[in-house]
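Session log. Operator J.P. requested a structure for one protein chain; no other inputs attached. Running the standard single-chain path with token output.
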Amino acid sequence: MSKYSMVMSWSEEDQAYIVSVPELPGCMADGKTPEEAVKNTEIIIQEWIETALEEGEEIPEPHLFSMPV
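Structure written below.
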């Protein structure tokens, strides 16, 4: 499971859940269910990182968020 933040929204136009990864510019995927969208996003995150490494780009670290107790 990714440690990157994911933002999910429903696209009425696409009739799909759209997930973007704020720390990785342009990294997004979709799915017919929330679970499918997250699973697809996990794959795209790995592909995004592999491509960035091949191109010598810097890989952003995941942001660590904490919830107050």
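Operator note: The chain has a mean pLDDT of 92.
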